[in-house]
Amino acid sequence: MSRSLRLPTFLGIALIAILAAVILLALTTVAFNSRPALANGSILVYTGNSPFSSAYTEFGNAAGKTIVTNVNLPADLSPFDCVVLPANQTAFDTNQKATLSGYINGGGRIVAQADNNAFPAAIATMNDLAAALGSGLSVVPALIDTGFNTTTNIDSSSFTVGVSSIRYAATSEVAVSGAAESLVRTKGGTTFIGADSIGSGVFFLLGDFNVLSDQSDSGYIIQDNGALAANMCGGPSTTPTPTSTSTPTSTPTPAVPAATATPAPTATATPTAPTAAPAVLAATATPAPTATAVLGVTQLPSTGGEPAGGSSALAWLALAIGALIVTSGGLALAYQRRRVR
Fold first, then answer.
1. What CATH number is given to the structural domain containing 159?
2. Angle at the Cα of 181 (from 208 to 260), degrees rounded to 5?
3. Residue 162 resides in a domain
4. Model-level pTM greater than 0.90?
5. Quick one: 114 and 217 in the same domain?
6. Are 46 and 30 in the same domain?
7. DSSP-based three-state secondary structure for 262
8. Which of 169, 237, 264, 328 has the smallest set of CB atoms within 10 Å of its CB?
9. Contact at 8 Å (CB) between 143 and 118?
10. pLDDT of 51-71, one tens digit each?
11. DSSP secondary structure string, 152-191?
């Protein structure tokens, strides 16, 4: 009689143990699935406020960082090395401007992109943001160089190291004033990419979204659009200013004066051809590392999170399953021994 009374007791204990293990499994699963997808070293492509383009896979590959897209602007942007604004056509509200301002003043980098005069809303949005941030950059609506073009008018800057040519299409002008600097100019010499140090961060403004998006034609393959992207969001410099910017770029500067000073003699035509040849070779050599970066990084965005976080969650899952097996086995063994008695 006493043995039969013990059976419900053992079953009750077994059920409680199994229920506890199931709850632990459920909590582990929730923690695993709800872990944040944001990770240090990533790039946020903000796809809210009516963006014109959201495809920036090549940009992330070139910078060697994970691309994270979000239709909502996170209140905390500190996990991101860079925030890309893809020609957003709806004006940012007061709270969004405050978030972006705090981010850039704290050392973040914002890549704001407009386009030609066929996109007045995007131009107005980026100019409004630039003014709110106190930048000396602004977009002047225009339609310069329709179709895809390549320019070698690269200004000396730490952000243009390794950049000898840029592919672009139908761009607006970017006006530069104050402490801001010009980075890239069209074939005709009009600035369409600029940079401005704000607080501890940097604000980039482009008059053409094709340059950095996946719609850059051969920019990431033949030209140096990838090198520019890497300098903007993956470069080693963390506190660039216009003053310090011009110092490190003194190396490439001689190449430009050399070509400028040479035209005075009649032998100008001879140096010009060799000068152009190295530029082509440099641009051709650049895609090789970019292709390597593609292989190393493309797998990261597909996870949507940090690999370390996934490993931790799986460890807890394995622990919970192990606890369930051990508990069930122990209870079954104990019950079997009592029956033998």
1. 3.40.50.880
2. 95
3. yes
4. no
5. yes
6. no
7. coil
8. 264
9. yes
10. 987 799 999 999 999 999 999
11. --B--SGGGTT---EEEEEEEEEEE-TT-EEEEE-TTS-E
